[in-house]
Amino acid sequence: ASHPFGTSEKLVGAIKNSCNPYFYQVMRLMVMQGEVENPYQDSHIGLDKWRSYIDKFGFGNTLGIDVPGEKSGMIPNSAYYDRAYNGRPWKYSNIYSLAIGEGENLVVPLQMANFAATVANRGYFFTPHLIKKIGDKENPLAKYKEKHDTEINSEYFEIAVEAMAEVVRAGTGQWRAKLPYTDVCGKTGTVQNDPNPDHSVFIAFAPRENPQIAVSVYVENAGQGARAAAAIAGLMIDKYLKRDSAQLLQEPYILKGDFLY
Top-level CATH class of 108-261? Predict the structure, then answer.
């Protein structure tokens, strides 16, 4: 959902408050860098450069989890839009909804959980697996140490971590995913599902420092991300971190909540 904050927001505030106009402008600066004078050609070049960065986060590809039929999702490139527009010209003004995860972007929940883990790790992720154990604690099996680096300096991820902490502390995910004993970092999302009700989405990791868990929660037809998905994510994190001593603060809300619109 877009909230009423203008493009004067800085990154932390834009993530905290889900400020769509901020991200429209940031992606415009990425895509239209003036490498060539023609704005249509410039958009082609810039979009493919943007796509090359997105690939490094595991989007648009299968991650290699140990189940058949894993879906790759789809992140569009210039060739996709050339086909979609049947040879007619297009530029950034035609595709700006990509900036907020809409448009032709297709991702799966596992990729979003993996993205949360990448931010938590400040720029890298390990190939996800369905596991019972990974070998010896001090010496995991080689396949569980397959590391993928985004090649983005870790200092830039600290800003995103701060923003995601603010989402839970005082932003769009306020209180529903909050835990009193640790900093939860998260981001709300609202997946449009016209003509049906929107889907509620929340990604999160915790603790902020030395993170142990990353999650992605989708609740179909439940509206904005903070309404249903954030509470469920908070409960999942609480149960994982505290096990039998979990505080279960969100459980009554979840059990009595009717999340379907």
Answer: alpha beta
